[in-house]
Every structure is written in structure tokens, then in C-alpha cells.
């Protein structure tokens, strides 16, 4: 059995961890409430996202696909990053079987570390300007510009969707390339815009880029919301588990302390009896 001093040190350590997890839960809960207010506004904008931009997981005659996982920069947020990485690995295997050239564009440190360990540098690029912790129109525009420098048939964005504090699931959004989306641009809009502008293709391009920028903002906020919700749940569970460990350690500590006190009393009494007996013999 551990000594009383060792048990005391362990008990203090677990109590400190419980204070940290409780504080992290409170901080994440406050951030979650702020993000929920923001996301209610962003969801309204996504309802008008052009449907003719959307692709398909099984797009026919596809040659090049970009996979874009969105993970967090830090851990301690449950299984949200693991779920994203598993979904990307499944898609990679499926696309390789279909002989589709695939590249992975990383947003978030956790996915970057995972794919560098498991896939090497050959299929990985990182969008440096974008992070779930830095969401604004400027960084989203720079990320879209960097993405559009490359040729692809479709981009598949994988992110976590926050359904509730205790439920987050991986969601994928497929976006066709500009050349494919342009073919599906509603003809009725093209007829109306003929009189308004001379360069229809430039207008299509601006609309496509703006749609991608707004989509990036939407999925990053959703991902950040899911991260904070998962961290609230994870830290709550960690706090409860720490509490159970503290109760167990306190029982063991109290028993060890009482045993030590009893042992010392027995030794004191034995010594006193020995001294008393020695005095009587003299």
C-alpha cells in the first residue's frame, strides 16, 4: 500500500486536475453560447447557397478530387477529430479504388498531424491562412483563392456538425469545380443577366468564389461549434471521473492515515508500558 504522503500527493494532484477540467468546461460553455448565436445567422445564409454548385460523392467521369478535412487546433474535445480522420481515410480508399486522383487539403493541426503520420507528404497540402480559430471573410477568401489555383473536378469538405452538446456527427459537402458548375447555371438567370452585364463568365466566377467563401465560413463555424460542444461534454465527464477518483483516494487516504495513527499510538503505549515495567523492577 502507498504511504500516507504518496496518497496525499496523488489526492492533491487529482483535485488540481478536477479544477482545471471544471474551468475548461465553463470556458467552452461560454464560447459555445457565443458560437450558437453566430451560427443561427450563418445557417440562414446557407439556405440560399446555389444548389447548382453542389456535387455528388459518386460524380461520374471524375478525374481529380480534393478532400478538405476541418479539424481542431487542440485536443481534449472528444472524438470529433478522430471521426473526421476516419471519414477521410474511408473516402481515400474509395476514390483510389475508382482510380480518382486525390489530394488532401488540411485545415486544423490535428488532421495535419494524423495524415503526416499515416499518409506522408505526397497527398497533403495545408491551407495556412485558415484555421477554425480564425474565421473571417478575409482569411476565407485567401483560402478559396489558394484552393482555386489548382485544377479539380470536385472538392469534398468534411466537418463536424453540432446537433447538440452531446451529439456531433461528421458531415460532408461536395462542391463541383467552376467549369462543371458553370454548365448547370440556371439558364433563366443567364437570360436576365445578359442585359445587365457584358461579361457573364466573370459574373459566374465571382458568384462561384463568393459562394465558396461563404461555405468556408459556414463549415468552419460549424466545426468550431462542434469542437466546443464536444469539449464541454468531455470536460464534464472528466470532472465527474476525477470526483470519483477523489472519493476513492480519500477513503484509502483516511484508512492509511488512521492505520498510521493507530500504529504510532500502539508504539507509544508499548514504549510507555516498557518504561513502566522497567521502573517497577528497579
UniProtKB/TrEMBL annotation:
Entry keyword set: ATP synthesis, CF(1), Hydrogen ion transport, Ion transport, Membrane, Mitochondrion, Transport
A GO molecular function held by the record: proton-transporting ATP synthase activity, rotational mechanism
Membrane protein topology class: Peripheral membrane protein
Highest taxon, organism lineage: Eukaryota
Broad class of where this protein is predominantly found: membrane
Coiled coil segments of this chain: none
GO cellular component: proton-transporting ATP synthase complex
Subcellular location: Membrane
Gene3D superfamilies: 3.40.1380.10, ATP synthase, gamma subunit, helix hairpin domain
Family named by the database record: Belongs to the ATPase gamma chain family.
Protein name, entry field: ATP synthase F1 subunit gamma
Protein's organism: Tsukubamonas globosa
Name of the coding gene: atp3
Amino acid at each position: 500500500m502507498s504511504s500516507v504522503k504518496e496518497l496525499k500527493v496523488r489526492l492533491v494532484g487529482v483535485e488540481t486536475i478536477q479544477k482545471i477540467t471544471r474551468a475548461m468546461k465553463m470556458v467552452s460553455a461560454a464560447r459555445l453560447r457565443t458560437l450558437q448565436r453566430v451560427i443561427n445567422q450563418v445557417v440562414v445564409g446557407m439556405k440560399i447557397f446555389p444548389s447548382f454548385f453542389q456535387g455528388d460523392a459518386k460524380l461520374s467521369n471524375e478525374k481529380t478530387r480534393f478532400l478538405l478535412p476541418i479539424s481542431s487546433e487542440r485536443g481534449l474535445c472528444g472524438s470529433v477529430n478522430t471521426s473526421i480522420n476516419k471519414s477521410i481515410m474511408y473516402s481515400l480508399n474509395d476514390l483510389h479504388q475508382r482510380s480518382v486522383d486525390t489530394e488532401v487539403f488540411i485545415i486544423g493541426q490535428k488532421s495535419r498531424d494524423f495524415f503526416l503520420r499515416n499518409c506522408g507528404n505526397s497527398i497533403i497540402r495545408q491551407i495556412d491562412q485558415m484555421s477554425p480559430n480564425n474565421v473571417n471573410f478575409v482569411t476565407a477568401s485567401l483560402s478559396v483563392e489558394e484552393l482555386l489555383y489548382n485544377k479539380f473536378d470536385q472538392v469534398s469538405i468534411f466537418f463536424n456538425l453540432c446537433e447538440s452538446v452531446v451529439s456531433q456527427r461528421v458531415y460532408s459537402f461536395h462542391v463541383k469545380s467552376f467549369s462543371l458548375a458553370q454548365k448547370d447555371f440556371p439558364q433563366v438567370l443567364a437570360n436576365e443577366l445578359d442585359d445587365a452585364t457584358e461579361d457573364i463568365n466573370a459574373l459566374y466566377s465571382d458568384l462561384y468564389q463568393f459562394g465558396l467563401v461563404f461555405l468556408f465560413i459556414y463549415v468552419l463555424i460549424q466545426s468550431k461549434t462542434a469542437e466546443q460542444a464536444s469539449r464541454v461534454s468531455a470536460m464534464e465527464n472528466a470532472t465527474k471521473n476525477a470526483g470519483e477518483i477523489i472519493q476513492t483516494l480519500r477513503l484509502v487516504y483516511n484508512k492509511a492515515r488512521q492505520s498510521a495513527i493507530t500504529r504510532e499510538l500502539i508504539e507509544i503505549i508499548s514504549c510507555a508500558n516498557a518504561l513502566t515495567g522497567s521502573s517497577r523492577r528497579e
